[in-house]
Design the sequence.
């Protein structure tokens, strides 16, 4: 065993520094209520932006804040389909021309076989 090894101490198990002279950041507790009746608190930094929902620690459902603060509804964009993206780049007459070209190529390739 090496001369400098500390017996009985695993790597990363704990620090040997004391907490003297350390100032912890200001904190605040925020309470949440789950739809199944679970109540829990989460600690946040004082300057943190507080969420309106948090996952319940016991059942995994989304819990809402106990103080009644509700978040604003997010406007969801409709899902863009392939056709929507194609229409952003091409007009209908352009698409008709491309279709006609591709059909012509297919018809010509069928004649070869």
Sequence:
């Amino acid at each position: 065993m090496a001369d400098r090894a500390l017996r009985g101490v695993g790597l990363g198990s704990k620090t040997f520094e004391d907490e003297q002279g350390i100032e912890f950041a200001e904190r605040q507790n925020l309470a949440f209520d789950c739809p199944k009746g679970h109540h829990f608190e989460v600690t946040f930094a004082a300057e943190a932006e507080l969420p309106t929902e948090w996952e319940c620690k016991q059942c995994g459902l989304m819990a809402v804040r106990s103080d009644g603060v509700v978040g604003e509804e997010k406007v969801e964009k409709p899902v863009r389909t392939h056709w929507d993206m194609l229409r952003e780049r091409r007009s209908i007459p352009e698409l008709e021309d491309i279709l006609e070209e591709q059909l012509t190529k297919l018809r010509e390739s069928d004649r070869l076989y």
